[in-house]
Amino acid sequence: MAFRKICVVILLSCFFTVQSASILALFSSLSFPDHLVFRGYISLLVQRGHSIVLMTPYPGQFTPQEMERIIELNVAPDSVPYYEEYRKLMTNTDDYYPRLQSMNDFALKLAIAQLKSKTMSSLFMNPNAKFDLVITEADIPLLYAVAEKYKTPHVSITAGSGKVHQYESKGCPIHPILYPDVNALNYRNLTRVQKIFEYYRSFQTRNEYYYNFIPKCEVAAKKLFGLNRPLQEVEYDIDILLIANNPVLMGNRPTVPAISYVDRLHIRPGFQLHQELQTILDSSKGAIYFSLGTLQEPEHLSTHVLQSLSDAFRELPFTVLWKIGNDTMINKSPNIITSAWFPQQEILGHILNLKHL
């Protein structure tokens, strides 16, 4: 009887085989927070046994166990010359349309430099390179052409809440007031002037994408990959669009099965605060974490502005964790703790943390 059961198990096991996929992932952005999202997605694929060939300007972000299934194509040397230009673009205060056009032109210029690097050129010229799936950064249409080159299924991911053209390509209804996209400047309870501005902003966004950005990307795709059909059709053929956001936070909007919301990809559980920070937060009535992000350095603000912030924090009954590298130009109060870097995820996860500014 036991022998018969063993034979049945062996027979059934012959019908269930697991095959890993060979995946090419292309991420161009110089925004490091975006790559935290991409890293989380790639890590999940690796955990499921897939093999990844990854183009990234931020290599070395995976564990040794994950690296056993990841081949990183490092385009950092080709990306570094563009970082200062990127930082200025992201922190300038130009009018919306000129700034949007400049950012799109920069993204295309950066992607071309990365795709023409020696690392990527070696891959594209290899006739034996074959993939089962191509994953691209959704905000860079030029990368879509790589999926067309390898004739594979295509998954695209955006670290934001989705742009107008991304929703349109999947057949989702768009509306600048009812369903704001990632470029919206005003939300909810809009005045008449704000509504008019949002309609105009939406028109400018679509006009910039369809009549400037994607035509330029198509020209580059034809030169780099010999693309023989409109790039917009390639965008329409994207099988799944992953949006790294939570629909609860975005508000109600119509969606389709080809769009999937995948929030919290950047969160890695299991990390704990350093003992010093843990002690400080445990002994506080509450805490405020203040950061201007990864691009805007607080030291570039005027001394008057920095001191005004410090004076405002002085009046609060809470501990303030201020992400700033150089605090010599301000007169700190005892409730302000400064550092060039804080473990943001662990701080925001502390039970006493009240606000993140």
From TrEMBL:
SUPFAM superfamilies referenced in this protein's UniProt entry, alphabetically: UDP-Glycosyltransferase/glycogen phosphorylase
Signal peptide: 1-20
Example GO molecular function: UDP-glycosyltransferase activity
Keyword terms of this UniProt record: Glycosyltransferase, Signal, Transferase
Pfam families: UDPGT
Family: Belongs to the UDP-glycosyltransferase family.
Protein name per its UniProtKB record: UDP-glycosyltransferase
Source organism: Leptidea sinapis
